[in-house]
Design brief:
Elements: E1 4-12, E2 22-31, E3 34-42, H1 51-57, H2 61-64, H3 70-81, E4 85-88, H4 91-103, E5 113-115, H5 116-123, H6 132-138, H7 149-167, H8 169-180, E6 202-207, E7 213-219, H9 222-231, H10 237-245, E8 248-253, H11 257-271, E9 286-290, E10 300-304, E11 316-320, H12 323-337, H13 354-357, H14 371-382, E12 396-402, E13 407-414, E14 417-422, H15 428-432, H16 442-451, E15 462-464
Parallel strand pairs: 1-4, 4-5
Antiparallel strand pairs: 1-2, 2-3, 6-7, 6-8, 9-10, 9-11, 12-13, 12-15, 13-14
Helix pairs in contact: 5-8, 7-8
């Protein structure tokens, strides 16, 4: 199959390469088609083996009690792997465990890998199942040591011999060589070819067996970013969980990073993928509004963001997901800046507030501090959280162009809200005539704060809708 490779299998305490440990290793080295070395050993994982795993593999805590630890056998394993390709059935699993075990010893594993699940998929595309049990059934193979490391190694070696007999040595060698070119890190059950994913900006979606995505991401180079998920799975627990479930990848191209960010944010909020922790759909946001009258009590009022007209957004402070979060933030500001909790509506009563009695309030509640000065200090304390007023007279468009694909995206905004994206300047007239309800999104607001900040007036990609797009 390959000039030199090591067929390897591991038994472990579980499926998480970051937290679980190896309990057994088996490896057979093949050079020029001839077996040159065969080695196996139990490994003391240093942790208890779960009952389910004990029943599955037959390896008990008692069996590994006197076995060597991984660091005692690592040298033998690395010597076997020297100059060889690491081959395994679902190699990502075995490779991930070896990477983590060696990392605990401050050692790196630099070895090419080949997955025989993917090889079976390539050689026998007419069949659906390619796991080890499927190979046993399909090719009439037998073993008395299923789920033991050397038993599983021998099954895969026997399958390779059958594949060479049925399809020819050359066909197997060619398929193995093709898979060796950078695809070994891919999860074996992945149905999407990495080569099909474009190296353009856009949004990619990971799907499992269900209709909803597991994860949605964006990148200026989707193919590279998707591959990085697979390559980091051995060290990142979340990536490993995704890779055990993923079946296919879908994608949507954009002309640039801004378009990818906007599309990612919208899709995550709409579809709520289980593995996306950020960009989730916002609940009804609330903000503080400062009263113009210094003697108003309370001096600030909590309002629902959606109840305020866009033209008044510049008078709001903070964006909070709940009343409790807003109150906690206001209490923190009062404590930091010596503001009066009573005048802020955080406590009731008459006379000096409790904070004043212990020296944490300057006494606006009992006449020691002028009310207009206290209001000014409240305004200054809130300034860092103030929502900025829309700095443009009407709608603004940001144009992105991706030369390799020839794609143009024109993103239209008004009052910090994303109105729509068109691909031809001639479509702007029709868009401008449409009456649309503005829907504020905090992620879009933060994104535009960076893009439409100082200096944006000189950006040739930004223009007002009323002006000719040029």
């Amino acid at each position: 199959m390959l000039p030199c490779y090591v067929m390897l299998d591991l038994e472990t305490t579980g499926g998480n390469a970051v937290h679980d440990r190896i309990t057994e290793i088996a490896a057979v080295r093949i050079e020029g088609g001839i077996e040159t070395a065969r080695w196996s050993t139990l490994v003391n994982p240093g942790v208890r083996i779960p009952p389910f795993i004990q029943s599955l593999t037959g390896i008990s805590d008692a069996m590994v009690a006197d076995a060597p630890a991984f660091d005692e056998v690592a040298g033998t394993l690395l010597k076997l792997l020297d100059g060889a390709v690491l081959v395994a059935h679902n190699v990502r699993f075995d490779h991930g465990f070896l990477l983590n075990e060696l990392a605990r010893m401050d050692l790196a594993l630099k070895v090419k890998t080949l997955c025989t699940v993917r090889l079976s998929r390539k050689l026998y595309p007419q069949h659906k199942g390619h796991g080890l049990d499927a190979l046993l059934t399909r090719h009439g193979l037998q073993t008395l040591a299923r789920h033991r490391a050397m038993g599983d190694v021998d099954v895969v070696l026997a399958w390779l011999k059958i594949a060479c007999t049925e399809l020819g040595d050359l066909a197997v060698q060619r398929a193995a060589a093709e898979l060796l070119q950078g695809s070994a890190a891919l999860p074996p059950q992945l149905e999407t070819s990495l080569a099909d994913i474009p190296d353009t900006p856009g949004v990619y979606l990971f799907f499992g067996d269900g209709p909803l995505p597991l994860y949605i991401g964006k990148s200026v180079n989707m193919r590279t970013r998707v591959l990085s998920h697979f390559q980091s799975a051995a060290k990142v627990a979340r990536e490993m969980r995704i890779l055990t479930e993923i079946r296919r990848v879908e994608w949507m191209e954009t002309a640039g990073e801004l378009g990818a960010l906007l599309l990612e944010s919208r899709l995550v909020k709409e579809q709520q993928p289980v593995y996306n922790r950020q960009l989730r759909r916002e609940k009804a946001l609330c903000c503080w509004r400062l009263n113009d009258a210094p003697d108003a009590n309370p001096l600030v009022q909590l309002v629902q963001f959606d109840d305020v007209e866009p033209a008044q957004w510049g008078r709001l402070y903070g964006t909070y997901r709940s009343k409790r979060q807003a109150l906690d933030a206001l209490r923190a500001l009062a404590g930091t800046h010596g503001l009066c909790p009573r005048l802020l509506g955080l406590e009731s009563g008459k006379g000096p507030c409790f904070a004043c009695q212990i020296g944490h309030c300057k006494g606006a509640c009992c006449g020691r501090e002028p009310l207009h000065l206290h209001r000014l200090r409240v305004q200054m304390a809130l300034t860092a959280q103030r929502l900025h007023a829309w700095p443009h007279a009407g709608k603004v468009a940001i144009r992105e162009y991706h030369a390799p694909s020839g794609r143009t995206d024109i993103h239209v905004f008004d009052q910090w809200c994303h109105i729509d994206t068109v691909h031809d300047p001639s479509d702007l007239d029709a868009l401008n005539s449409k009456g649309r309800t503005l829907s504020f999104d905090l992620d879009t607001y933060r994104l535009l704060q960076k893009r439409l900040g100082p200096g944006s007036a000189h950006d040739p990609g930004i223009f007002h809708i009323a002006a000719a797009p040029g």
